[in-house]
Amino acid sequence: MTMASIEVIGFVLAGVLLASVYFRHVPITRPPIGVMNLTDTLVFMFGLVVTPYLYVFLAPTSVGVMLGIVVLSILYFTLEPILKHRLLVWSSCLIIVAADVGAALFMGTDDVAFLFINNATLLLAVIGVSNLWAQSGMRARDVTILAAALAVYDYVATWRLPVMTELFTELSGLPLAPLFGGGASSVNTSLYLGFGDVLMAALVPLVFRKAFGKQAGYIALIVGISTIAASVLLVSSGVVSVAIPVMIVLGPLDVVQYICWRSSRRSERTTFQYLLAESVKTR
User: Fold this and answer.
1) Rg of the chain over CA atoms, in angstroms?
2) What pLDDT is attached to residue 30?
3) pTM for this one?
């Protein structure tokens, strides 16, 4: 096990676990978009398919600006319920983004310090986005459809087409890149993991817990972390010499879990039923 793999797995573990803690204790302030439904899931999937092509063909400066706006927005709604005061929230968000951009400019995006700062920024983003969707009422059915669709997309975009490889290459040289990284590319020990993989590993346990109970949430959490850890270790140890599309493994596992829980529980709990059953603070 290399230091790069330890760092990446450590941030994945922290992101998934902290997302669960946040879900239990922090009522996120949701934008007025209503309940997260299947239509929203399909729209997100369409955006996911189109976005890599935008990143590849747009100028790096334009991509950097887009990433900055997106990350600032995510950080704001993630930190707002905790820090509460608008000035403090915005100050914290700007400091985090400035630290990431500054580290990229003055140290380089292959520097260990930059990778650590960028990973920490992405960790907050994983917590925020997964909770926004889960607390907005996303159903287990919809997150399972998303996981299955991502498995197909990951297979095509990573193994059949060069989309993901080109995207990782383009983004790895930018600040606020949606890539969890470890090591340093200058000594050929770099290791990268896509933000989307970690987001799904954090999101599915939250939605499954809400829909089917604690046991479902815990099992999904263990499955997600184990799948990503195994993929990272296979690549870092040299057993596998090509990029591993994590979702082609994690997606089908999520589908199997959903089928099992849906068969045994007959129906999903609503958000209100979850709040009552687990005595969670009303959102």
Assistant:
1) 18
2) 62
3) 0.88
